[in-house]
Amino acid sequence: MGNQIAIIGMSVEVPQARDIHAFWDIIHSGTCLTRPFPTERRRDMSDYVRYMRATTIREVADPEVRYHDGSYFDRIDGFDYEFFGLTPKQASTTDPHLRLIMRNMYRAVEDAGYAGRIRGTRTGVFVGFAANPGQSYMEYFNRVDSSLVQIGLVGNVPTMMANRLSSHLDLHGRAWWWTAPARPRWWRSTRRRTRCCSATATWPLWPVRG
Fold this sequence. Notes:
Elements: H1 20-29, H2 39-54, H3 88-92, H4 96-112, E1 123-129, H5 137-144, H6 149-152, H7 160-168, E2 175-179, H8 187-193, E3 195-201
Parallel strand pairs: 1-2, 1-3
Helix pairs in contact: 4-7
């Protein structure tokens, strides 16, 4: 097979498109996804911003919370934590990016027809990911309740984006994460030897209640 790669399963989840078919409809129609920040998430985010401002040393002169128009998910708190072997608290302290990647990598495996066939095999998981710089999800819940940091640490380490699925499916291949714009040097040699599940994500998310 040499250096050839076969893409046999896909999954997409972006604002206003929960699957690859809806995503294709958006591309085909040329629909613009830019819109105001969702009302339901705005309430959660405004509560957090007010709390953060109330705990700062210097008083904020302008109390209004403003939001930019953008491409936003309506909700990011829907996650089947039991399916992935997590407790409710583990799930709520897991970075929303990681939750989305876990769900869509598994859906891609299902789409390929391998969901029940790769457990215990030498299958690798490779994730390319980049997020907007700024506040992290762990910083968000640490400000609210610092006792959650220990339980939430694993769910906020970028390398766990690959390891979570690998552990869930008992995969024995490599599990690697790298910043999305870069391709690791080992990619060429690894892809020759290992069946792989790969994901690339660049989802900017505001932190809200998990």
